């Protein structure tokens, strides 16, 4: 009860001392109670660990800069808290200690807010791009980018850009990113904020993917410079992708990983993302990915030879060489392929268990997160199949009947052994499933072609519709087979539910013998039931499947290439983990990202990118993307005022002003007309109303218009 009293009394006394403070507390009561608890904790922590408390208060004060809290409210807040404590205790020393400690907290917060309240932060609170441009125009050209990226008070700092994203001021954040990625130049220097942006915020891509995906396009657009001049039908284009390829330590950047996790196909088709992902894929990843698949392809070839070729070679009369080859290849499959796969699956599972990465299903069922990727799940099933094949291997079960000295064919004891037929009934179907799983895993190689990969992805995204169709058909088959079995008839094809299911399945697949239709027509009820089944299954459901596939294809058609690039991005991220630092450093040095790029002929600009030539009609532009200024070249000078470019908001604002002026003129004219012609209007009203018997009402209305 005393705790709740403290919570309520604190804000009651504060609002009584400073009624304006109510306008700044919009949170719920539970949030206010949380703030009250922190207010009581701060004085205690100030005595326990003052150094740490000062750092925490500096960080809190910088957050209050973003909240736009007036510093005048801190004094009444402290007074209200002290008065509240006075009502709870008679110990003067405790009251003095609380007052002293809370006053120190208040002074630290006020000092932090005063030092951190820059014009940029004030402009962010308005969430107006024009206000932000006016605020940052006061910055020296050499420090303009840091005005937008860093505010430091003591040992604590805050990023205005990140604060605008956290507070939802996306208009300000968009304007800040645009201002940072504009290339400005005087006679001596080029100023481009990309390096400052990625140095201050290496995780800017991750942050935008999580909180402001709409700003990603503007960020990537700012990394591209296109010349307005063309030569021989080609246009120079500079892509400043250094920070997308490498991080601050020179290692492979996580930007592609963050973009893949976002799973936005449109972003993956942005020219900047396309260039740097294709660069990494063509320079390193595809080579190592193919080398990693060589072992799998070799294993697949051996599996095909042992399971599908050699065992049918001279069947029934196999020589010693053939039998030995089959045994040797299968031993290699069980040791080399199965052993490698078991090691891989165990390492992935242990890593997920240690990191507590699970995928939870309904009913409390959970399994390692790595099995959420389809290729890992298929590999796991393949491992189980090969394990089952090993337990049912005929060579092991029939080894007692094997004659190593036989020159031709198996011995009769081996081929007719007690265990051979039994194990073959299990071994052969499992071998078939394993073969299909092997071929399924080879789908990863479609990543080398974007078009083929897009087709495979379409198949994967529409297979769910096929699954629904199969489920509906299975329901109809079981329903009609059980219904037909309840009839009295003499048709052997439907004499029982099992035979009925087989016959209806053959009808669905157009495999039902045509000679059986005459027998089917002999029983009218059976014929009617089969006809209804055909209408529902082969006509209605099949056409519905076509319609569903068409709709599903249309929903993914616009983003086919984007989904293919997402798939390639996943493979790039998985492959780059195995690339050695030496090879990565050698390839990175070949890009020469630290060399300054040329804009137009003889105009050498900033470094950090690659220059390519694109067709002149691909992205036509007649505006120079570099803002050039004359005058002083001192970094301490501000940039000269730019020529304002009217946007839609400016046009709307001017239109509103025109309407306001016109309205004022019309209002003024109406008033003057009312003063000069009021008597005539009144007379007319009286003449009209005298006929209707209500002349006074019109006179009063006319008089009411005269000011």
From TrEMBL:
Q: Does the keyword Transmembrane helix apply?
A: yes
Q: Which domain of life is it from?
A: Eukaryota
The biological processes this protein is annotated with in GO are: calcium ion import across plasma membrane
Q: Any stretches that span the bilayer, and where are they?
A: 295-313, 377-397, 436-459, 466-484, 525-546
What GO annotations for molecular function exist for this entry?
heme binding; monoatomic ion channel activity; oxygen binding
Q: Biased composition, Low complexity: where in the chain?
A: 678-691
List the CDD domains hit by this protein, alphabetically: Mb-like
UniProt entry keywords in alphabetical sequence: Membrane, Repeat, Transmembrane, Transmembrane helix
Annotated spans, Disordered: 662-707
Descriptive protein name: Ion transport domain-containing protein
Species of provenance: Polarella glacialis (Dinoflagellate)
């Amino acid at each position: 009860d005393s705790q709740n009293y403290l919570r309520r009394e604190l804000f009651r006394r504060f609002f009584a001392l400073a009624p304006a403070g109510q306008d700044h507390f919009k949170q719920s009561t539970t949030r206010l109670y949380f703030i009250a608890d922190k207010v009581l904790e701060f004085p205690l922590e100030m005595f326990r660990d003052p150094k740490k408390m000062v750092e925490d208060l500096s960080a809190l004060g910088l957050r209050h800069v973003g909240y736009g809290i007036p510093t005048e409210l801190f004094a009444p807040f402290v007074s209200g808290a002290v008065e509240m404590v006075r009502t709870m205790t008679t110990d003067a020393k405790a009251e003095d200690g609380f007052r002293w400690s809370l006053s120190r907290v208040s002074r630290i917060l006020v000092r932090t807010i005063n030092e951190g309240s820059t014009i940029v932060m004030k402009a962010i609170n308005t969430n107006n791009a024009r206000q932000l441009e006016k605020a940052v125009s006061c910055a020296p050209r050499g420090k303009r980018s840091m005005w937008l990226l860093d505010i430091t008070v003591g040992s604590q700092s805050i990023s205005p850009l990140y604060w605008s994203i956290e507070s939802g001021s996306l208009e300000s954040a968009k304007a800040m990113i645009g201002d940072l990625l504009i290339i400005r130049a005087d006679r001596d220097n080029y100023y481009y904020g990309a390096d400052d942006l990625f140095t201050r915020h290496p995780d800017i891509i991750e942050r935008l993917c999580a909180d402001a995906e709409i700003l990603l396009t503007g960020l990537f657009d700012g990394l591209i410079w296109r010349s307005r001049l063309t030569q021989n039908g080609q246009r120079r284009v500079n892509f400043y992708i250094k920070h997308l390829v490498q991080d601050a330590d020179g290692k492979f950047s996580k930007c592609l990983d963050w973009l893949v996790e976002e799973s936005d196909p449109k972003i993956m088709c942005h020219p900047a993302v396309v260039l740097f992902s294709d660069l990494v894929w063509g320079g390193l990843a595809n080579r190592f990915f193919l080398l990693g698949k060589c072992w799998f392809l070799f294993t697949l070839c051996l599996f095909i030879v042992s399971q599908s070729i050699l065992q049918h070679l001279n069947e029934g009369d196999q020589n010693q060489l053939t039998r030995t080859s089959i045994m040797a290849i299968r031993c290699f499959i069980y040791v080399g392929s199965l052993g490698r796969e078991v090691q891989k699956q165990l390492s992935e599972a242990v890593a997920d268990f240690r990191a507590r990465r699970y995928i939870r299903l309904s009913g409390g069922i959970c399994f390692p997160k790595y099995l959420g990727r389809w290729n890992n799940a298929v590999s796991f099933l393949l491992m189980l199949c090969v394990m089952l094949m090993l337990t049912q291997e005929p060579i092991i079960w029939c080894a007692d009947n094997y004659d190593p000295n036989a020159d031709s064919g198996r011995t009769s004891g081996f081929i007719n052994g007690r265990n051979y037929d039994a194990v073959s009934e299990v071994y052969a179907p499992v071998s078939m499933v394993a073969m299909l799983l092997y071929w399924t895993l080879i789908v990863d190689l479609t990543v080398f072609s974007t078009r083929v990969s897009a087709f495979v992805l379409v198949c994967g995204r529409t297979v769910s519709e096929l699954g629904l169709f199969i489920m509906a058909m299975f329901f109809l088959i079981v329903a009609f087979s059980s219904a037909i079995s309840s009839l009295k008839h003499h048709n052997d094809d439907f004499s029982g539910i099992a035979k009925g299911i087989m016959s209806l399945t053959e009808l669905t697949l157009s495999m039902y013998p045509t000679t059986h239709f005459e027998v089917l027509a002999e029983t009218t009820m059976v014929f009617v039931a089969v006809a209804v089944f055909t209408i529902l299954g082969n006509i209605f459901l099949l056409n519905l499947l076509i319609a569903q596939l068409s709709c599903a294809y249309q929903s993914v058609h616009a983003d086919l290439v984007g989904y293919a690039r997402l798939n390639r991005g996943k493979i790039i991220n998985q492959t780059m983990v195995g690339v050695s630092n030496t090879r990565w450093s050698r390839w990175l040095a070949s890009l020469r990202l630290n060399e300054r790029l040329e804009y137009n002929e003889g105009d050498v600009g900033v470094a950090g990118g690659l220059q390519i030539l694109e067709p002149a009609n691909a992205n036509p532009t007649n505006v120079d993307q570099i803002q050039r200024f004359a005058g002083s070249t001192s970094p301490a000078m501000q940039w000269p005022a730019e020529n304002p470019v009217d946007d839609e908001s400016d046009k709307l604002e001017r239109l509103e002003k025109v309407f306001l002026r016109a309205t004022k003129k019309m209002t003024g004219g109406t008033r003057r007309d009312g003063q000069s012609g009021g008597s005539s209007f009144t007379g007319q009203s009286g003449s009209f109303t005298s006929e209707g018997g209500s002349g006074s009402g019109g006179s009063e209305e006319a008089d009411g218009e005269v000011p």
